[in-house]
Amino acid sequence: MGSPGRRTLSFLLVLVPMYLHGASLQEAGPAGQRKPFFERLRRLEEQFRRFQEVTLTHLQGIASNYNVSQDMDARFQSLAEESQAVALTVSRSQATIQGDLAHLKTWVRKTQRQSRKVDMRLQALNLALSEKNRQWVQAGKEQKAQRDVISGLALDTRALQDALVHLTHQVHSQGARLAVLEGQLQMANLGTAAPGLTPAPTPAQPVQPGPLMLLRDRQVLTPSPKHRSPPQDFTAHLQGTQKLPAPSSHWEPGGPATVPRDPPQVPEEVCSLGPVFTFPDASPENVVFLNPSFLTALRALSFCSWVRISSGRLGTLLSYATEENDNKLVLHGRGSLAPGSLHFVIGDPAFRELPLQLLLDGWWHHICVIWTSVQGKYWLYVDRRLVATGSRFREGYEIPPGGSLVLGQEQDSVGGGFDSSEAFVGSMSGLAIWDRALVPGEVANLATGKELPTGAILTLANASWVGGLVQRANCTCLEHCP
After folding, report:
1. Beta bridge partners of 382
2. What SS3 state is found at 294?
3. What band does 45 get if pLDDT is binned at 50, 70 and 90?
4. Contact 404, 321 (CB under 8 A)
5. DSSP symbol at 453
6. Which of 165-179, 232-246, 427-441 has the lowest mean pLDDT?
7. To the nearest whole number, what is the mean pLDDT of the chain?
8. What pLDDT, in 10s, does the model give residues 108-133?
9. Which of 274, 257, 270 is nearest to 341 (CA)?
């Protein structure tokens, strides 16, 4: 497009001088010819101007088209470069996509293999679950059968427990009757051996042990015939060192019961009882701690000990307190109670009042307090004689472990809160606690100085701390204890 424009411009540059030269020649001709000539010249000038304008316009169009062509070339070049870049980018993208597709195909193959493995595992788990369900159903049936068997065993156990409690009660009753008969037999032997004494009547009818009979038969601690008469020096020693209340010859219901009798004598064979703890006065500092206390919960209990009361009231023999209740297990006679009355407390406020007026004569006596949660049975033995019994006392209850166990004081808080009005004044020896109910034969063995029943969970050997003025002494035999 550039070469035709340049040729046209050269032509015009040549034509214009030639035209001007011709015009100058015409002016040199005759005057008559000038007017048409100038007219033609004017027209030619007008035509030239128009031609010039057209040429200029044409040249401007050519120049404009030339610039546009240059812009188009640049644009085409840019577009070519961009197309090359796009083609390169597309090729790279295609390569990347091909690689991603290859990875995706590999991952899909792996996923398919894993899915097949998972399907196989799911099938195996489904089979195992089906087998487990079948086993669970079978186990449920077996458990139901076992529950039925256990329920039957529980009923049988309950019946056996009831039968055992009934049998134990009968054994205790028979033991009491045997003790009464032994006392009557001893009295009969004494009556036949000593002239002037009235022998005991032969029981033509069954003799029921009443309060007076039990008090009279407390003389079971009398030694065997070869030791029936103690040495005079020992008798004088007992009479000289112990002040006894004057005996009464009558008995009033509801009050202390005494009968004319000789002082009870301790069997000579009651020996090897261990230490003797003496509480000299009612100071709240006089206390003995037993440690460890109860290590497991107790559904049965037997508390036995030799005691000698030096005051007109019983005071507290034993106190067991926990954080939950400071009166989980208590044997105490408060100052507000009648002398000789003892509260047997299991889980305050439940208690039973036990008659222990027999202990207020200042002599050594053996006591056993026995309790079982089966039907809430309890028994009180004094000098191997059954003096009180009952049932429905804390039936099914458990005495919890881990509390504080003390002798001689009643706890109003764990390990403290002592009061002089509830203090024990006297002596203790041969104390032992079992987590089962002793039978009458075992109680009789304890009261006559024979072997200690097996399974004792606590004794005075567990005394971990002795406070106040409590004195500890070791006596060979009980009769020599101060």
Report:
1. 367, 385
2. coil
3. confident
4. yes
5. P
6. 232-246
7. 77
8. 999 998 888 898 889 888 888 888 88
9. 257
Helix (H, G, I), strand (E, B) or coil at 450: coil
Rg (CA), the chain: 63
Q: Looking at domain 264-480, does it have CATH number 3.30.450.180?
A: no
DSSP-derived pairing of the beta strands 463-467 and 471-474? unpaired
Listed by start position, the domains of the chain span 264-480
Q: Where are the beta strands (DSSP E) in 264-391?
A: 275-279, 287-290, 300-309, 315-321, 329-333, 341-346, 351-355, 365-372, 377-382, 385-390
Cβ neighbourhood burial of 96 (10 Å; 0-12, 13-18, 19+): exposed
For residue 78, the model assigns a pLDDT of 85
Between CA 386 and CA 380 the distance in angstroms is 6
Is the link from the previous residue into 203 a cis peptide, with omega within 30 of 0?
no
Say how far apart CA 465 and CA 391 lie, in whole Å: 36
Q: 390 burial class (0-12, 13-18, 19+ CB within 10 angstroms)?
A: middle
Please name the helix (run of DSSP H) or strand (run of DSSP E) that holds residue 429, with its range, or none: strand 426-434
Structure tokens that stand for 276 in this block: 């003797």
Q: What is the pTM of this model?
A: 0.52
